[in-house]
Every structure is written in C-alpha cells, then in structure tokens.
Amino acid sequence: MNNNPTPTIEGGEPLPLHELIHHILESKTTATERLFYGIPVLGTMQLLNQQLANQPGLNFFNATLRGIGQAIFVNNPISGLLIIIAMFIQSPWLGIMSLIGTASATLTAIAFKLNPSAIQNGIFGLNGLFVGATLAFFGLFGGKGVWNPSWIVAAIMLSALSTIVLQTVGTWFATRFPPYCQSRFIQLQLPKNTDSVSWWLATSSPDFANN
Where do transmembrane segments lie in this chain (predicted)? Predict the structure, then answer.
C-alpha cells in the first residue's frame, strides 16, 4: 500500500500524470553525487540541470539528450548521447527521425512554457523520440518513406502534437482519476507501456541496417 501523498500544485489540485512521472524519475543532487574520475557524470546529473537553467541553448541540448535516455528510464544526457549514436550506427534514418522527434517535442514544450523541470529531465522529449522512431519504422514499408521529406515533416508535426496530448491527457487524468495517480505502478507503466511496442518495433527491425 502506498502511503506517500500525491504531489499537488498550489490550491491542492493533483499534478498532471507526466509531472508525477517526473517527480518519480528525478533524483536529488547531493554533495556526494557519484563521480567518474572526478567528473560528475553518473546518476541523473541534476547538478548539470542547475548549471544550465539560465542557458537556453545548451539546456535544450541537455533536455533533448535526456529525453532520448528516458527511453530506458535513464535520466542522463551522456547516456542519451550514447543511445542516439548507437541508433545512427544501426540506421542513419532511424537516428535522424528519432533525434528530430525528440527535439520537436522538447521545443514545443518550451514554446508552451510547460513545467521547466519536466522539460529539462526529458519527459516530453521521450514521447517525441517514440513518434520519430515509429515513423522511421513505418517509412520502410514500400521503400517510399526513407529520406522522404514528407515523413520528416510528419515527424516534426506529430512529435509536437505528442507534447500537447501529453499535457492535456496528463492534466485530465490527474483531475478525473486522482486516486489512481497515487499508484506508482500506474504513473510509470501507463505511458511507458503505450510506447514500448513502437520502440521495440522501430529498433528491432533488421531492415534498418540497410537504411
């Protein structure tokens, strides 16, 4: 039984679902943050978030890479960089579509001035990654989608839409079903399971090796 109270915004309203996920995935930075040869690159690197809070350009790259890392629940920009490099090695088409999707979703969240911390930790970019990777997969059918500008435009638009849907549905879910938001299983698995099949299809296709 979960005895932890559900985080709320000012006025006592429950947080949107995606912001609850952010609270679960985010870990606090301490003075004893793990180091790699004296460099704080392990864990979730929240110190980097603090340092980039007032640097929009660098912070955008940080948020984009974190969104990529969140595909496997790794809130770390270096991990995200390694993942996207691996995707480009497997298939440049998959890599560019995934990167475009993540960037588009992140930029949309910034444009709508959504929760800065959730943006910074890749919550919105994650969905854009899944959209881009899924479109890359379906673009292989018939061979007409690969490197087709129309598919790239679709990735940009649908990834941006994913941010709007996440914000809208997350807020609706929190206000409509607040008791269920107290379940950490629901908070983590509801959005994750919805996208995992698409991620698996996109990254496991042997056809990507030739594109």
Answer: 71-89, 95-112, 124-143, 149-174
pTM (predicted TM-score): 0.72
pLDDT in tens, 15-64: 555 455 555 555 554 545 555 555 556 677 877 888 888 899 999 999 99
Residue whose pair of structure tokens reads 């042997």 in the numeric block: 206
Beta bridge partners of 14: 8
How far apart are the C-alpha atoms of 45 and 121, rounded to whole Å? 10
Q: Give the residue extent of every domain in the chain.
A: 46-176
Taking domain 46-176, whether its CATH number is 1.10.3430.10 is answered by: yes
DSSP 138-195: HTTGGG-STT-HHHHHHHHHHHHHHHHHHHHHHHHHHHH-TTGGG-HHHHHHHHHHHH
- Closest C-alpha to 23, from 14, 32, 31: 14
